[in-house]
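Cross-posted from the bioinformatics board.
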Amino acid sequence: ILNVEQSPQSLHVQEGDSTNFTCSFPSSNFYALHWYRWETAKSPEALFVMTLNGDEKKKGRISATLNTKEGYSYLYIKGSQPEDSATYLCASPLDSNYQLIWGAGTKLIIKP
Amino acid sequence: EPEVTQTPSHQVTQMGQEVILRCVPISNHLYFYWYRQILGQKVEFLVSFYNNEISEKSEIFDDQFSVERPDGSNFTLKIRSTKLEDSAMYFCASSAYGNTEAFFGQGTRLTVV
């Protein structure tokens, strides 16, 4: 069974500080790694879909890296702002049927 | 831009009643999902659906729940004999394939009284 794990479970960060958190997944039979941001009372929003080892993607102050050989991805937020407060979810397809297996999420709280 | 739509946006139901939450996924997508978030808690996966059948379901998705794609466009979640603890935000999502991003609807807030 494929397990996608995220750490930490929650994170409090001072406004203006940079932060990062981790998504771990089995490195065998890798297909893709997804990152989503889920703000309270809103629907989840896709941030990145990464497929290649060493891939790095960036959207504004948010970036992500991917290491498929060791089975982890980091999400970085530079200069955290209150609007970054959300739960960040990662997910990876189970197998060639591409059923997404989701991590439990990292809840990020930005303190003003 | 294509989007996933969910109806209703808010549903209030009496405990013990049955509810049907409706979703219209993006038309060329092949994979469909239901998630829920109880207020203040984490996102919970309920079920995924592909090729007109359930491909995966969580422990939450017991006999009280069922999903259906009745007409090739709608994707419904039925909750029988609702309980107070079923009150949550229910999100539908769809994706073209598993290695493409999932698009989420705006959610249905279910309140069981």
